[in-house]
Automatic annotation (TrEMBL):
A single GO molecular function term of this UniProt record: quinone binding
Protein name: NADH-quinone oxidoreductase subunit D domain-containing protein
GO cellular component labels: chloroplast thylakoid membrane
InterPro entries: NADH_Q_OxRdtase_suD, NDH1_su_D/H, NiFe-Hase_large
Amino acid sequence: MLRASGIEWDLRKVDHYECYDEFDWEVQWQKEGDSLARYLVRIGEMTESVKIIQQALEGIPGGPYENLEIRCFDRESDPERNDFENRFISKKPSPTFELTNKNFMRE
């Protein structure tokens, strides 16, 4: 609301929050104070966020890495456990689930 009302203020700039000082970005603000101004500020914030992310990605040092996600796919699946009949055996109704005698089907 502040930045859509002509006040160019952002905690990340004022308080030197985290590592935002290391990136080149501008505080987005509008002076009109209406819904369109809030919308334009938000669109500008998203654009600045993309610029910050791009700068952060460029700053990541290169080097060897290990793909930890591939370990999830190395396991062998148990075909008996994944059988259609076994998928629903352990499903139990909720203890508070009750059906009334009302007819729910309309003719």
